[in-house]
TrEMBL record:
Annotated CDD domains: PseudoU_synth_EcTruB
Keywords: Isomerase, tRNA processing
All copies of domain Pseudouridine synthase II N-terminal, residue ranges: 31-187
Family: Belongs to the pseudouridine synthase TruB family. Type 1 subfamily.
Ribonucleoprotein keyword on record: no
One GO BP: mRNA pseudouridine synthesis
Domain tRNA pseudouridine synthase II TruB subfamily 2 C-terminal as annotated: residue spans: 243-300
Role: Responsible for synthesis of pseudouridine from uracil-55 in the psi GC loop of transfer RNAs.
The keyword Isomerase belongs to this UniProt entry's keyword annotation: yes
Enzyme active site: 45
Record's protein name: tRNA pseudouridine synthase B
InterPro entries for this protein: PsdUridine_synth_cat_dom_sf (IPR020103), PsdUridine_synth_N (IPR002501), PUA-like_sf (IPR015947), PUA_sf (IPR036974), tRNA_psdUridine_synth_fam2_C (IPR015225), tRNA_psdUridine_synth_TruB (IPR014780), TruB_C (IPR032819)
Domain tRNA pseudouridylate synthase B C-terminal: 188-229
Length: 301
């Protein structure tokens, strides 16, 4: 009798390679984990590398809530060239000598793009406009506008400014930057907007995501490493790392799993999703405080 393969419920932290879409990584992980139930929390552009959080089996129910957490990136912005996609994968649409741009001007431009800002996503992005992906409209040559939306850039720092010469001979500046931002922030849009503010154009030439919420690059493994030995972070551990923890007694645990809305302690008011654990340390549910009661977002117990 053959033993049925069971994949544990949990998160898989992947160090995404360049050239892969997030969907490519999910497809590859379905083969590695031998399950169809795989999803990801927040996409990464094909050019980008770094932390991509995947959920397998029951943990796929956590992903929508994890996608909303803060992200951290290291990247390179090239000043002096605009591209169709705001990154190095698109064709160059304009070139301007950027060698005279000062560090003071760069810092002033970055200050304008830090904090709570309104950002227009890149046209070649997965944003839906009237139900159609923006990149599909762009590829078909449509003229359209994407509305600006609020994002938060908690920090935007420049580590290094390097003089360079582009392939077409244009003197450019390459900025090595770090960004901490809210979900939904486009780093290539920051590159585009910084270049526009400085009057020379700009695009992103490299991007590495170093953190998604509490999950950092040191916990990520390549697809090849996962192929050799799949590393799954147990769902209870993943939930405890990402959300406030609420330990309940056995009576409350039973009520909760039977669909009863428990009274929630005041300390969780307005804190967003909260992970509920029973006395044995089992992860029961993700709940949210609503008028003093625990509204279930996803049940696991």
């Amino acid at each position: 009798m053959t033993q049925k393969h069971t994949t544990p419920d949990g998160l898989v932290i992947v160090d995404k390679p360049s050239g892969f879409t997030s969907h490519d990584v999910v497809a590859k992980m379905r083969g590695i984990a031998r399950t169809r139930r795989v999803g990801h929390a927040g996409t990464l552009d094909p050019m980008a590398t770094g932390v991509l959080v995947l959920g397998v089996e029951k943990a796929t129910k956590l992903l929508g809530h994890l996608a909303l957490t803060e992200k951290e990136y290291l990247g390179t912005i090239r000043l002096g060239q605009n591209t169709l996609t705001d990154d190095a994968q698109g064709e160059i649409t304009s070139a301007t000598d950027a060698s005279k741009v000062t560090r003071e001007a760069i810092d002033a431009g970055i200050a304008k793009l830090t904090g709570d800002i309104m950002q227009v996503p890149s046209k070649v992005s997965a944003i839906k406009i009237d139900g159609v992906r923006s990149y599909k409209r762009a590829r078909e040559g449509e003229e359209f506008e994407i509305p600006a939306r609020p994002v938060t850039v908690s920090s935007f720092g420049v580590y290094d400014v390097r003089d360079a010469v582009a392939e077409d001979g244009t003197p450019v500046l390459d900025l090595v930057v770090s960004v901490v931002c809210s979900s939904g922030t486009y780093i290539r849009a920051l590159a585009r907007d910084l270049g526009a503010d400085l009057g020379v154009g700009g695009h992103l030439t490299a991007l590495r995501r170093t953190r998604v919420g509490p999950y950092k690059l040191d916990a990520a493994r390549t697809l090849d490493q996962h192929q050799q030995e799949l590393a799954v972070m147990p769902i209870a551990e993943a939930a405890a790392a990402a959300f406030p923890r609420w330990d309940v007694d056995a009576r409350r645990a039973k009520l909760l799993t039977n669909g009863v809305r428990l009274e929630m302690p005041d300390e969780y008011a307005g804190s967003g999703p909260v992970a509920v654990f029973d006395p044995q340390g089992r992860f029961l549910a993700l709940v949210e405080e609503q008028r003093g009661k625990a509204k279930s977002l996803a049940v696991f117990g």
